[in-house]
Amino acid sequence: MVEKQLKVTLVRSKNGRLKTHKECLRGLGLKRMHQTVQIADTPCNRGMINKVSYMLSIEEA
Fold first, then answer.
1. Of 51, 48, 19, 54, the residue nearest 6 (C-alpha)
2. Which residues pair with 33 in a beta bridge?
3. How do residues 4-42 score in pLDDT, each as one tens digit?
4. Full domain range(s) for residue 43
5. How many of the other CB atoms lie within 10 Å of CB of 8?
6. Whole-prediction pTM value?
7. Residues 25, 55 contacting (CB under 8 angstroms)
8. Which residues face 46 on adjacent strands?
9. What is the total count of domains within the chain?
10. CATH at residue 9
C-alpha cells in the first residue's frame, strides 16, 4: 500500500511567530524559507499543517 504524500513549502517567515507554531514547522521538517519537504498524509501531519497553514503552500505529490 502506497501512502499519499504532500509537498509542503514554507512561504512566510517564522520570525515573531508563536512558539507552538515554530514547533509545528520543526515537526514538519521545515527549517528555512522556501524549503520544500515531502511528508506522508497522516492525521498527525494534517493537524500540524492546519495549525500553521497561513505560512505554508501545500500540494499533493
1. 48
2. none
3. 999 999 999 999 999 999 999 999 999 999 999 999 999
4. 5-60
5. 25
6. 0.90
7. yes
8. none
9. 1
10. 3.30.1390.20
